[in-house]
Amino acid sequence: MKILVTGGAGFIGTHLVRELLKRGHEVVVVDNFTLGKEENVNCFRDNSNYKFYNLDIAKGNEFWEALKEKKFDIVYHLAANSDIQKGSKNPSVDYNDTFMTTVNTLELMRRIGCKKLFFSSTSAVYGEKQELLSENIGDLKPISYYGGAKLASESFIQSYSFMNDFSTVIFRFPNVIGPNLTHGVIYDFIRKLQNNPNELEILGNGTQTKPYIYVFDLIDAIVKFTLDIDMLQGVEIYNAGVESATSVTTIADIVCEELGYKDVKYHYTGGNVGWKGDVPKFQYDLTKIHNVGWTASKTSDEAVRETVRYIKEHLNESSYNGWW
Amino acid sequence: MKILVTGGAGFIGTHLVRELLKRGHEVVVVDNFTLGKEENVNCFRDNSNYKFYNLDIAKGNEFWEALKEKKFDIVYHLAANSDIQKGSKNPSVDYNDTFMTTVNTLELMRRIGCKKLFFSSTSAVYGEKQELLSENIGDLKPISYYGGAKLASESFIQSYSFMNDFSTVIFRFPNVIGPNLTHGVIYDFIRKLQNNPNELEILGNGTQTKPYIYVFDLIDAIVKFTLDIDMLQGVEIYNAGVESATSVTTIADIVCEELGYKDVKYHYTGGNVGWKGDVPKFQYDLTKIHNVGWTASKTSDEAVRETVRYIKEHLNESSYNGWW
Predict the structure, then answer these.
(1) Is the Cβ pair B156, A158 closer than 8 Å?
(2) Domain A185-210+243-282+298-315 belongs to what architecture?
(3) At A256, phi and psi to the nearest 5?
């Protein structure tokens, strides 16, 4: 199959591209290296099934012009700002990188007649809800520009899919971690501990508790729901997550344990959120995705530990270019 | 109060501006006469509390620059494409006129520090649902670019409202009719009957049945919920509608009856929708808005009849400039 992966040089995109190439597909990647990294995709360069475009998808005309002759069987649209905290300081970040990239991808599909779409949405579309999050609960009130831009993207996807007979799968991702991660709490803790091994500043009160999925579990689900299972016309939304969840303090504990930092004094900044727009706690209802026959192989705590171990193994490699 | 009305030269906007000026407020109108008409607002020109800007809000920089020194107590954001059928042929219509106008209005509010917003949303955000539409049902799948753009607008409004402490009221309008209407089924029927008084082509099978609200009932509700009742921080969404509904065939009957066309042969194009993206039937759950103490004064059928009568009275006026 001929496949377009937007954001294919990013954290999740790279792992997806590797899997798609492994399966023998032709893969076109579009990325502008905002969060994606050239080093992530260098390894694919010699594969004749791989082609790369350095383009900002938010600039529609350039993007449409470059790909107007292409025939894609399916588009995986992963390009987005994924740093919620960064976007909270300036709404144009998520407007451009999260929302405009989506509208322009939909418009490309309409123009070139591509009918299959995978979209990476997020738990942030739900906002701050007390109940278990099931896909069809209503009254969604995203509290970050990122969540608003993703929910707005879902809205445009609904109307484009109906008007143009797309078959669309939307995954609402929880926190995703693993090799090549570019930012987030694990990243912050390790950097802070490298600077000061005795004390660790933790944003909020440490009780913020979210599910963390290991990136290879997520790739497994994406490929299963878009290639192994027939995609049906219309839009299907799935919470793609793990049943368990990990608190910020537990993450700190795992980081200290795995990296050998002892007697670290935790200093909490206080309050129940890390920053304005942060959703402190959530848990998915996973009935829908489990019913199709997919379950994550690792718990949230295991995903955190595995990620920390991966970093530890690569910390002293002179060629290590994943994280910092 | 100092008030901004976007789309203030449009069908609903004009009536709102008149009411706000009558109450003694200072009103700034921004409109680019895409659907709005200069004749609609000419009557306000001599009012020293009224100021008009001819601007396309979808062009953010021009809009922000023109109003950057203004202090508004509240913004009524009505600017939008309201012709769903027109937008179904080209997604850029609703992208620009319905969605971009909203994002740019939110960004203006953030920049100048305005904290109160009224937004005109639509029943089209619900898509095609079988159940009674209550504000908090989930799994919304808009089937028109217009509905997608309005739901995406609501998503951005949620995140902007949270991040910037706005007090926001969203009304989801049903079909709105009355003096100054610019398009829609009543308009089409009268034009067709003027061309051929013996036969009337009806899109679909005539059973499409929707609630029609009289524009003055809607203005009454808008003013009540934004000026007479204190707006609370956060976003409140209301279905602003009437309990009853009118079928397309009934509209044809009322038009023929009121305009004196007899023995008209109806020719149905068939199918249960007028065009792709049309929602053939819906009915609102109005519990929430009724509980605050507001109910429409006219039924849907009465609103249709009143609108047809208004047109009849003005059909032979040489100065009539409302409709065509």
Answers:
(1) no
(2) Alpha-Beta Complex (3.90)
(3) -60, -45
Distance CA B140, CA B158 (A): 16
Count the neighbouring beta carbons within 10 Å of the beta carbon of residue A39.
14
Strand boundaries in chain B, DSSP class E: 2-6, 26-31, 50-54, 74-77, 116-122, 167-173, 175-177, 199-202, 209-210, 212-214, 234-239, 246-247, 265-268
Going by the DSSP 8-state scheme, the letter that residue B124 receives in this structure is G
Tens-place pLDDT, residues B191-209:
999 999 999 999 999 999 9
Query: Chain B within 8 Å of A266 (Cβ-Cβ)?
Result: no
Residue spans per domain, chain B: 2-176+213-239
Could you give the CA distance from residue B83 to residue B175 in angstroms, rounded to a whole number? 11
Both tokens assigned to A219: 């790739």
pLDDT, tens only, B123-145: 999 999 999 999 999 999 999 99
CATH, range B2-176+213-239: 3.40.50.720
Report the CATH architecture of A2-177+212-239: 3-Layer(aba) Sandwich (3.40)
Give the containing element (helix H, strand E) for A105: helix A101-112
By DSSP bridging, strand B212-214 and strand B175-177 are parallel
Give the nearest partner residue to B155 out of A148, A162, A235, using CB atoms: A148
